[in-house]
Amino acid sequence: MRSPGHVESLVTDARLVGERRGQILRAAVKLFSDEGYYTTTISQIAREAGVSTGLIYQYFGDKDDILFLSLKLVLETYEKEIPTRLVGFKHPVERLCMALWAYCTIIDGLREATVLAYRSTKSLRADRRALVKEDETRTNRLLHGCLRACIAGGYMREVNEYLLVYQYVNFCHAWALKHWALRSRFSLGKYVRRHRAAGRTLSYGTGHGCASLHAAQHCQFQAQGCAGKAPEARTGGLSIRLVKLALVESSSGKPQHHAHVYKKTGTQVGARRV
Questions:
Q1: Half-sphere exposure of 113 (CA within 13 A, CB side)
Q2: Which residues contact 167 (CB under 8 A, 6 or more apart)?
Q3: What are phi and psi of 185, to 5 degrees?
Q4: Among 43, 70, 140, 192, which residue has the least CB neighbours within 10 Å?
């Protein structure tokens, strides 16, 4: 019995399979995004890709195979590219900010496929949906590792890490999901620099009453054309500021404000309390 992740090809040349599947998947993503998964036919995909319908069936068994590999391609790109972009960055805050910047730039190149993942994952067979969710979880763990290092090193307050990682993911994905509204106002760089990723108000029990924690993270990138360059080139052109704001209810009920600012400029990382 085939595993749910296996997509059979009648062609055995791995290089040719990769090239043809890439050609067909690019056409499929465009049509699935524009027309919808259910209304798009194999014949339409063939026309868009500039190949025959019969050729598609040499590389895919059915339309579900095409959708599955389209979504896998997006998620595997995140998983492969984000660690590559972190090479050369050592400081935890710098790594977190670069991971988010990398995530946004990758999504910018895969906007149609990112929207497709939201729209059509539910159209996959149940066993393949589970694989897509596993892939997404692995990407989240990359961000979680960067966030955990910041907290463990004392550069960020303790927060609900699980929820914050999903806020980061939503922030990055929003560039694709709401690109129709954002593109007339922001470039990607401006979107990342100016966005305030405001955390939700989180309530949690302490055993001695409840406290409310409002957390906001802001990663500010002042870099042009950094993606894909050598680590030293990226670092030399990058100024990162992570602003951590917290509002904690004291035992007297009066709010106490704290702000931690961590700034990376050149090779020095400083921290101050305001």
A1: 23
A2: 197, 199, 200
A3: -115, -30
A4: 43
Query: What percent of the chain clears pLDDT 70, i.e. is strictly above it?
Result: 70
What is the spatial distance between Cα 109 and Cα 227, in angstroms, rounded to a whole number? 12
Can you read off the two tokens belonging to residue 17? 């399979």
| Tokens 């790594």 found at | 95
What confidence score (pLDDT) does residue 1 get?
Answer: 60
Question: How many Cα neighbours within 13 Å face the side chain of 69?
Answer: 22
Evaluate whether 132 touches 107 at the Cβ level (below 8 Å): no
Reading the block at residue 33, the tokens are 């995004």
What tokens does 229 get? 């360059």
- How would DSSP label each residue in 121-137? GGGS-HHHHHHHHHHHH
Q: Rounded to a whole number, what is the distance in angstroms from the first to the last CA of the chain?
A: 62
Counting Cα atoms < 13 Å in the Cβ hemisphere of 123 gives 19
Domains of the chain: 1-61 (1.10.10.60), 62-273 (1.10.357.10)
